[in-house]
From TrEMBL:
One Pfam family matching this protein: ACP_syn_III_C
Residue intervals of the Beta-ketoacyl-[acyl-carrier-protein] synthase III C-terminal domain: 281-360
Protein name: Beta-ketoacyl-[acyl-carrier-protein] synthase III C-terminal domain-containing protein
Keyword Transferase: yes
Biological process according to GO: secondary metabolite biosynthetic process
Keywords: Acyltransferase, Transferase
InterPro entries hit by this protein: ACP_syn_III_C (IPR013747), Thiolase-like (IPR016039)
Amino acid sequence: MKEVYINKLAKFLPNEVVSNDEMESYLGKINDKESKARRIVLRNNGIEQRYYALTKEGKPTHTNVQLTAEAIRQLYDADFKPEDMELLSCGTSSPDYLMPSHAVMVHGELKSGQTEINSSAGNCCAGMNAMKFAYLSVKSGSTSNAVCTGSERMSSWMIADHFNKEVDNLKELEEQPIIAFNKDFLRWMLSDGAGAMLLENEPKGDLPLKIEFMEGYSFAHEIETCMYAGGDKLEDGTLKSFSDYTSEEWLTKSIFAVKQDTKLLDKYILDKGVEGIQMAMAKHNITPDDIDFLLPHVSSHYFVEELYQKLIVAGIEFSREKWFLNLKTIGNVGAGSVYIMLQELVASGKLKKGQHIMLCVPESARFTYAYAYLTVC
């Protein structure tokens, strides 16, 4: 087995920063009315700005494929050219198409020469799953290098026009003309962007990061679906696929809108996350003393204090100076968040040789968790 090093990191954030007060000018107002949930959600999530691949008129400026390709291009230099890439592994929860896969479309956009590709689907863990595929490829010797990415372009899923038909339908039924909180909630949480890493079997550059281990855990066997799109949730907790609805229902029920069961989220997301990190740390016999920087992907600052307290109760307290977060300034980029966090930590100048970093990524879709432990070389 080979050792695996993250030798380069890059990020791409589209257009200009979008403040909280500007959000509805980009996403639009459902039924021409300001959202009742927006201020409540923003107050709790603590996000102050984000990036959208949209104009102020709600027109797209980049595809997810283009965002991802722009991040990858920043990895190129005299020592790593486009044609040197042996594997491209891409993760996202918001691909531009149902098919072809996201990674093959990114490869087509790059026109970088023949390479192996892998697409990781899912939600926030899709970026970590793409990273693990790349890690295992280099570690096994199947390839000597791999590029992995995490990206999202959720803004185009959140524009008001996608919800207006359902509002009209609710009016006809003499129900209140508002979208359920579970749908409106996510409109104020998500951001666009992409991150990329170059993994190689030898350390290069000023501060390469050695990947010591990666672990993942799913609790789908215990808990029903929490976050979903392309279907609707039935009373018994099961999902009904878009393919089993009529094309008219796709519009009237906002079938392709992203929904989240906020009650399930609040009940399980932290407890299962703590359980997951306990298992990963116990398996590899490490303690909080062996971790200098904790990079937890959190969707909202609402969860941070409670997560801190639950970790203390579990006997794995991380002092506050070890936590590194960028949610306030970047927003929630889903599968790309941990890539962008790590890139910003490396660029911050805070790292020293011999230090250790723990990446923690939860996924609320059906409660999946991914972890990576890195050494600064």
